[in-house]
Amino acid sequence: MLLPPSLHCRRACPLLAGCVRTLHSGRPRTLRPLAELLLRRRPPSGLDVRFRSRRSQEEEWRSRNKTVLTYIAAAGVGMIGLSYAAVPLYRLYCQATGLGGTAVAGHDTEQVETMKPVRERVIKVTFNADTHASIQWNFRPQQTEIYVVPGETALAFYRAKNPTDKPIIGISTYNVVPFDAGQYFNKIQCFCFEEQRLNPHEEVDMPVFFYIDPEFDDDPRMARVDTITLSYTFFEAKEGQQTFCFTSARAEGRGGFLRMLLCWFIQLLLFSSPAQSDLFTSIGQMMDLLMVEKDLVSSLKDYISAEEEKLQHLKQWAERLDALSAASSEDPEGFLGHPVNAFKLVKRLNTEWAELESLVLTDMSDAFISNLTIQRQFFPNDEDQAGAAKALMRLQDTYQLDTSIISSGQLPGSEDLPRSILTIDDCYDLGKVAYSEADYFHTKLWMAQALRQLEQGEASSTVDTATVLDYLSYSVYQLGELQAALDFTKRLLELYPTHQRANGNLKYFEYQLSKQKKAEQIEEEDQNQKEDQANEYLPERRKYEQLCRGQGDLMTPRRLSRLFCRYFNNHRHPNYLIGPVKQEDEWDSPRIVRFHDIASEKEMETVKELAKPRLRRATVHDPQTGKLTTAQYRVSKSAWLGSHEHPIVDKINQRIEDITGLDVSTAEDLQVANYGVGGQYEPHFDFGRKDEPDAFEELGTGNRIATWLLYMSDVQAGGNTVFTDIGAVVRPKKGTAVFWYNLHRSGEGDYRTRHAACPVLIGNKWVSNKWIHERGQEFRRRCSLQPSG
User: Rounded to whole angstroms, how far apart are CA atoms 718 and 759?
Assistant: First the structure.
């Protein structure tokens, strides 16, 4: 019998052994005393538990439980108290250690006035400026670098501008690189950790008044430091958020450095925003990752250059000393007989070798590690990687792409784009993601692709043939392909004859295969039945994917002859009487129309910029609760923009009302969506069906009577809007809007409007939706007596 892990303890084992000895001996099998000893946490020595009353045991246990509960309650109250006291304690700590506050011991005004500059030590101070994705500011240093000497004050400026039409409050953090130099970098005046409010389109200069402590020159660790980088990062802040400024990072020795790191860590806990999730669901937000990686590559190159320069110094030093050693080894006595040689030998061993040691110990990675630590908060996580992998498989299925096509990067529509290929490691990782989801079909495809690339001679330092064969044999077995599983297992054993799992699987597969051959005819009948069931599985899904591939389009010449283009002024509307809009019929029944050149480039870019910081994983209405919830079948991020937020949003809403003739005052806010890797929205209705009576009850404006869909980007491949019931395909075209009614005039839902957004194969898809509701349309779109009129 397998015992649970909780029974494997030092106290229980001797007692259990005693139980076993008792059972094997001829003595009475009474286990109660031993059980009582086992259950008791600390049995008192010298006391026979068999004569102890049960009542006294219960009282003792009750007393101990009360004590434990008291400690737990006290700890909980203490933690709550510390959470409320975190900010004032943080202020007191930093003031006491010289890492916060406005007055720091040893660095008061008198010291600044009396300190002596070290003129022979010139230091270059460079400036860097960053903004978090949450804040829409333009922020940059006014100067890229200045030269200062320790003990001399200097003044630098940063400039910040709010290009939006709303006030924004920002809070900045800063760091000094190298970290060890931070303890000597003192700011007399700064804007760090203070609320900075910028009104719409306001631009301000922010000064930084600082000096480097003269003791910088006395620290041997700073002997090779001739460049210091001061970096500021602005985050968007809430109204009234209070923070504190590091006016100095001066502290003594290594302890000061550790205190600076501790305060920096506390700042991260208090002020940093969590990393965004679901990054793969929005190409727009993933573009920020390119900038992050570009910055890291630049930082990495700087680090490599610093290491190369350091190694070059060491190499020159070694060559010089090697030449001296060669000269001195020929005649050591004669060499030292020269007084200059003797002096230089003593000098080298006394001072120069110490400088060499300092150079060797100098860590050139401080700047790179600091930058990497700051940027890591914006990195994708494992869920993003798995999501991106599933998106590739979704594209593979929808557009029936072979793994070799995806691996080579030769996707349809990507001829003019930079091409990337998938390595063996990439294919293997895709297979592992599928395997973790029990998706053995895609596991087989991608492990087979990894195996092909291995056989073609591609090298990999992490993936070998045996590992791929192991995954392949199990995956094809799960798919019912016993012969293939047996073949892969035999290949694995040719490479590793002692592979324990493969040897066991070999016998099992051979046994199963022999059984299968005996019942071959029955198996064929079952297989035919499975194929018939597979053909009936998810017919809409199959039709949806066919439409996305352009194979199920039901546009016929006869239907096409009934579709027209025209100039449209919506019954002589004043705004479009002189300049009507271009209208094109996309489908006749239900009627779907497209309006061309409906939004300018500037308007669409403004909408994108407004939405981008607020993009969140797209939500849909839960038919059970009627509330919005995250949908796994919708791979995109969206943001909602009200007409009051920007004049352009209000202008677009008014344009929709003028063109459609419908009242948009009861419509939902403008929803802006950006689709990610393989972004899609599976078949759905925009209106609430009869089995969803509470779908829009909280809005109080009735059902969604119509949909306005504005395409704000062109898509190179994929991304079509398809109507699965009628077989219509609408291709995205930047600056055009598609409009259709979701409800008949009777108020009944038009089930022919069921539609979907195909996965984006190549490109970046931006759309905005305006869902117009029934309330307010009573005299704009009159009802009909016909049920489906």
Answer: 6
